[in-house]
Amino acid sequence: MSGLQYVKRMTPSIIRILARNPSPMTGHGTNCYLIGNGQRRVLLDTGSPNDESIVSSLVDVLDSENCEIDKIVISHWHFDHIGGVEAIQRQIGSEIPLYKHKRVRYPKVYKGAGEKMPSGLDIPVFEEQYWNFLADGDVLETSCGSKIQVVFTPGHADDHICLWMENERVLFSGDNILGDSTTVIDNYKAYMKSLEKMKTFGKCQIFPGHGDEIENGLERVEFYINHRRMRETQILKQLQTGQKSISDIVKVLYADVPEVLHPAASINVAMTLDLLIENKAVSIVDADGDIYCRN
């Protein structure tokens, strides 16, 4: 049973609908949002496939609100956000337009990051669906006139977007910022740039892709930035005592994290080490064995 309400009105024009897909990676489940207060509204994210989507709760909300979905917007390609599209199309309407950002390949792709889901599932493929591709700075409108700005923020995923509602001062953060924990990433440099971009929205509420809403959004973004910098410092301290492998570092730095999440943590450490190598703070000793040392 989820620790969050399946349906919660966040503001007069935003309703959160929780997907029924709790797991170690998704927490209580995926937060999806029905945005607007007119007859035709925007749906952000859809949950996982079939019964783990939001479709059962969404049908009830649309009925009680006497409204329809004008468009479905996906924050990023991960299965717990995009996976419920087909269930919604089957039960609510196959003609609802679909929007997302194109996947933009990073200069370096890390094994296990961007190849598969963080959970290990294969990347979902929806050949039969037509996507309208969004770009940074695009503005979506609801039928009541609310404007929603698209903000391209890769780092957790290579197509990741946030949505910004100026009139509500709400930032929908997708999985770049979570309500109850830090997040996994697939490109460290891109992610840090995205956090700096999110910081420019200043004081606001953040409605995340997982976990509770965040009242002081600016404070949370700054915490995430500082947390990543702290990880850099911790890795350097680990290497002060001698050569270390990525797994050696993960066992110490993520000792309080369930082992099922250690593969994702290993990717984060590998990306951070690459940045430290670029900054000439660290060298790689044995590329085959992933052994590193402090310069």
TrEMBL record:
Write down the CDD domains for this protein, in alphabetical order.
LACTB2-like_MBL-fold
Superkingdom per UniProt: Eukaryota
Family, per the entry? Belongs to the metallo-beta-lactamase superfamily. Glyoxalase II family.
**Name of the protein in its database record:** Endoribonuclease LACTB2
Instruction: Say what the protein does.
Output: Endoribonuclease; cleaves preferentially 3' to purine-pyrimidine dinucleotide motifs in single-stranded RNA. The cleavage product contains a free 3' -OH group. Has no activity with double-stranded RNA or DNA. Required for normal mitochondrial function and cell viability.
List residues of the Metallo-beta-lactamase domain: 29-210
Q: Which GO terms describe its molecular function?
A: hydrolase activity; metal ion binding
Q: Does the keyword Hydrolase apply?
A: yes
- Name the UniProt key words of this record, in alphabetical order: Hydrolase, Metal-binding, Zinc
Q: Where is the signal peptide?
A: none
**What species is this protein from?**
Oikopleura dioica (Tunicate)
